[in-house]
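Give me C-alpha cells for this 158-residue protein.
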Amino acid sequence: MTSYQTEEEQIAAIKRWWEANGKFVIIAGIVIVATVIGTRAWQNFQLSALAKASAQYDLMLRELEAGETDTVLQRSEDIMKSRADSRYAILSALLAAKVEVAKDNLEGALAKLNLAMSQAKSDKLKHIIRIRLARVLMAQGKLDEALTYATFPEQGRF
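Here you go.
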C-alpha cells in the first residue's frame, strides 16, 4: 500500500481513481439495483398469477359442487388459457373432462384429457391421465386404442 505524505496527496489519488473507475461503479450499482428490483417484481407477478389461478380453481370446485357445469367448463378454459404452464391448467382440464363425461360428451372429455396429457410433467400424473383416457375410449367402444393407453411402459426396477 502506498503511503501518502499529505492529506492532499491522498485526496488527489482518490480523485484519480474515481475519474478512472467512477462510471463503472455507477453503472454497476444501477445494474445491481435494477436486477434486484426486476427479480422481485417478476417473483411478485408469478406469485400473484398463481394465487389468481388457485382462486379460480377453488371457485371452479365450488361451482361444480353447486352443479354449474357450464360455468365450470368456461372457467376451465379461462385457466387453461391464462396459466397454461401451471398445474392448475392440468387440474382444471381433468375436472372439465369429468364434467364432459357427466354430460355424455366423450369427444370433449378426450380433448381435455389429451390437453392435460400434453401439459403433464409428472409420470404419476401421466399414468392417471392415461387410465382416464383408456376409460373414455372404452366407453366409446374403441377398445384397441384404449388398450394402448392402459399398457404402461417399463419404468425400470429398484
